[in-house]
Batch of 2 targets.
Target 1
Amino acid sequence: MEPGNLTEVSEFLLLGFSEGPELQPLIFGFFLSMYLITVFGNLLLILAVSSDSHLHTPMYFFLANLSFVDICFTSTTIPKMLMNIQTERKVITYADCITQMYFFLLFAGLDNYILTVMAYDRFLAICHPLHYTVIMNPQICGLLVLVSWIMSALHSLLQTSVVLRLSFCTEVEIPHFFCEIKQLVQLACSDTFLNDMVMYFGAGLLGGGPLAGILYSYSKIISSIFGISSAQGKYKAFSTCASHLSVVSLFYCTSLGVYLSSAAPQTSHLSATASVMYTVVTPMLNPFIYSLRNKGIKRALKRFFGKQSIKGPFSLGLKKYT
């Protein structure tokens, strides 16, 4: 069959969070503020890392990549939602919906893989410090990021391809603020067994695999930290991975919350609300987590702006840690 015969609809309706028009301006302002903070904060991190030669190390290279992915991740969903609120239209075309779903899955997967690579980087730095610079050379760092992109792109392509085979009838309302794959599959009037199996496979590939790698890395890191005799040495070793551990905990806890809320019956709007945590809140908080306790980032931002103190979201707690 031709691709055009696989569906009887040409557009969907994104219901968002509220049917009440009086709440739409509040929702618009709330998400616009969070989106601008996310883009501005992560862009500052990228500029800080790229402008300071002292930060041209594997850890900050992966951090800059994570910030770039977070900007793209948020940009796949929030601008469209803001445009729908502003124009008072909830329509998204079939092609745009599939495209949005592809890029959402792509950057969600990249977040997972880069967080795993960062855990591996901390594992080598703490558990094998003598071999760290040899193993984590620029070529290996670039290769790890490239492999992350390839694996995430292939997974996203697989998920999108099996959705394209579905037929949609009269039900075109998606109780979400973006084209979330599970919600889209539930609207199909054709058999979704293959889609369910592919989604379970993807959950294991994107969730189980990276999480197992992160847990293994940190089990070795904790074991090595306990083996350090001095309290100062333990603190220094732990402080190098505390920010990453905070981001990992935030990302996986919110993702698990979304999964559990979507598994419950009649909670589509609750699932949409919970999705805000890992699609918007987590990317927004990442720059704060990495900058407030990181002297290298704060020092780079000082040099970048040419000031002794930085005004803005990175100024909090500056004097305390410098």
Target 2
Amino acid sequence: MKVEFAPLSTPLPRRLQTAAVAQWIFSFLALAQCCTVAFIALFFTRFWLLSVLYATWWLLDREKPRKGGRRIHALRKSIIWRYMRDYFPITLVKTAELDPKKNYLMGFHPHGVLAAGAFLNFCTEASGFSTLFPGFTPHLMMLSLWFRIPFLRDYVMSGGLVPSDKESASYVLRKPEGGNLLTIIVGGAQEALEARPGSYTLVLKNRKGFIRLSIQHGTPLVPIFSFGENDLFEQVNNPKGSWLRRIQHRLQQIMGISLPLFHGRGIFQYSFGLIPYRRPIFTVVGKPIPVQKKFRPSTEEVDRVHQKYLSELSKLFEEHKGKYNIPEDRHLEFI
């Protein structure tokens, strides 16, 4: 098997690496609130016209996220993402050639707490995506609610993020010219509650919507496993059936996002904080699984392709786990 890594530049200063990661975490968590507050507050100042103009633009542009978004290459290539890459570090690994004349549907596993590997590999150029996959345009699906927040919607679209709904996915996958990679973090918010060091539990046994979507468009499936994704944070113990897990599931049903109680290190100390631990991530992209196109696949056809996907994902994990210090007796668990 041919394995390729993108050539990376010289690592950047460690202090700047930590600052870049802190900026990514805190800016995104705070940005949603700040954008909403700023949009509303401007109506009560002499700058009210800015909010009116943006609201008009928002109305005219409301369908853009569902039509592939609007990426800004200068932001994708920003040096801050190189600092973030070197902090962990994060490496994108290619194991098979992909045809740029086709579109592909990629399943990313596991979600982790913050999906750092998915974001950096497919929403920036820090790990050398365009070098490894020339001729392809990457898209990463994200919860639709983030695209309803003023200003923030434009920021997340700049990296290639699109809403996680069928309409957005279909728009990308049916492009006749090919060359599009649509990445779905299949386990979603629920899988974030399983994210802790040494965990290889994937919420995938009953996740078949992406399989059906792939068959309807005749789009090959590509499994991805991001080794180290679950090692970035510790999480408060929340076994199934516990009061904490019940509350987390209830909040997920109400808000659409899960709230894992996690901690990492601090900026100036290593015992406690919200900065992820400095642990390497290797995002391994597997080989494509051919899919026969059928507009209305039967349940049996979906189940058959789903089982094939589980098998190929397990195979990918088993073939590479030894390289990344995972014990031989550890295997993927599907729930």
